[in-house]
Amino acid sequence: MDASHTIACLLYPDVMSLDVTGPMQVFASANVERQRQGLPAPYRLLLLGQRAGAIATSAGFQLVADRAWSEVDPAQLDTLLVPGGLGVEAQCVNAPLLAWLAAAEPRLRRLGSVCSGALILAAAGLLDGRRATTHWADVQTLRQGYPQVEVLGDCLHTYDPRDLQDNGHVFTSAGVTAGIDLALALVEADLGRPTALAVARRLVMFLRRPGGQAQFSALLSPEPSRVPRLSALLEWIPAHLSEDLSLQALAAQAAMTPRTLSRVFVQELGVGPGRYVERLRIEAARNLLQDAQASIATVARLTGFGHPENLRRTFHKHLGVSPQEYAARFA
């Protein structure tokens, strides 16, 4: 990618500032890395608003839109990002913006969202029939408000550079910092993995998390009191990670049938029991490894993975590194 490509991001009142500045800084840092190599900057960055000028973010400070989106020919843009924030609801009924996005979509190489910005794309009809994710707190809103969307509540982003027609062209990402992971994935697709890793190092990031990784720490799941049908079970599981936590065992503990338990988990938490338990076990294993409290074999046993190989496969699946590498970087 030798020619400059324009990366644009929308602004609107009460936008989440980090949804804008996080991804845009990734592209800016990619420019710096290429210039350090004596190569031209590949990206031109552009902020678009209802009109040019300062726009207040939800943090209270202002960002400045370079141009009005209505004055921009989408064909001149390479990638357009739609951020989330407290002002999303108003933009979901902003008819001129939704019409502009719908008209722009087929003319853009890539159209993506960060955090609750997915709700704006959904309101424009651009996620119908597509896989999409959003901030975990907005998953139910997306799922209930837009039944035509295939909502994935437990991933960081849906960008797939191998799928140029669907989720490689229109894609979404989860809450706040997941937009940075998305931007790194876009840089890797454009400029290669070495440049993406160099940018991650420049931003002091541990690694570029894969899009399928869980959005948030399992220990930050909703408080049991917020999911009354599961409260007793959610309090019980963390203390029994080394035991049998199969669907049948969990259903017996909760006094439900396996089918009912699976349905309640998806309704209340957006994930099935197996995925929830796996997240808890990964989080527990990470904490033990970070604190250098036990050997890999002991960590595997204490967290319910049994054999170190099971722990290794799960770490590679979700974190892209082995338990040994994770311990070496964090312990």
**Helix segment count?**
14
Low-confidence stretches: 215-220
- CATH-assigned fold name of the largest domain: Rossmann fold
The level 1 CATH classification of the largest domain is Alpha Beta
Number-wise, the strands total 10
Q: Estimate what percentage of residues fall within beta strands.
A: 5-15%
Report mean pLDDT, rounded to a whole number.
Answer: 87
Structure description:
The protein has 331 residues and is an alpha/beta fold. Helix content is 43%, strand content 11%. It has a 6-stranded parallel beta sheet with strand order 5-2-1-6-7-10. It has a two-stranded antiparallel ribbon with strand order 3-4. A two-stranded parallel sheet has the order 8-9. Helix 5 (139-145) links the parallel strand 8 and strand 9. Residues 215-220 have low confidence and may be disordered.
Write the topology of this structure.
Blueprint: E1 5-10, H1 17-36, E2 43-49, E3 53-56, E4 62-65, E5 67-68, E6 79-82, H2 88-91, H3 95-104, E7 110-113, H4 117-123, E8 131-132, H5 139-145, E9 150-151, E10 170-171, H6 178-191, H7 193-202, H8 231-236, H9 247-254, H10 258-269, H11 273-290, H12 296-302, H13 308-319, H14 323-330
Parallel strand pairs: 1-2, 1-6, 2-5, 6-7, 7-10, 8-9
Antiparallel strand pairs: 3-4
Features:
single chain; 331 residues; alpha/beta; Rossmann fold; Arc Repressor Mutant, subunit A; 2 domains; two-stranded antiparallel sheet; 14 helices; 10 strands; 11% strand; globular
Question: What's the short story on this structure?
Answer:
This protein is of the alpha/beta class and 331 residues long. 43% of the residues lie in helices and 11% in strands.
